[in-house]
Amino acid sequence: MQGRDPRKILVYAMATVIVDETCAGARAKHVDDVRYASHDGALALMSSCPGIDFRRHGEKG
Q1: What is the tally of helices (H) and strands (E) in the chain?
Q2: Rounded to whole angstroms, how far apart are CA atoms 49 and 18?
């Protein structure tokens, strides 16, 4: 077998697009959104559909 072990690869495809009439406005919205961000909440949301407990992989960032 060559390459990576497919059981060792984790892929999270998520993006949040923030738009405004100006770059400054979009950045301000982003700063406001970050105030409400929750690492635990994101893991709970991501785990709810596939039924995977992502906490077992540890916090990477």
Answers
A1: 2, 0
A2: 24
Q: Does 51 reside within a domain?
A: yes
**Residue type (1 letter), 16:** T
Domain of residue 13: give its range: 6-57
Residue 1 lies in a domain: no
Residues 39, 27: contact at Cβ < 8 Å?
no
pTM of the model: 0.48
Sort 56 into a burial class: Cβ within 10 Å, 0-12 / 13-18 / 19+: exposed
What are 60's two structure tokens? 């990477």
Question: Sorting pLDDT into bands at 50, 70 and 90, what band is 24?
Answer: very high
What confidence category does residue 57 fall into, taking pLDDT thresholds of 50, 70 and 90? low
Six token digits for residue 26: 């979009």
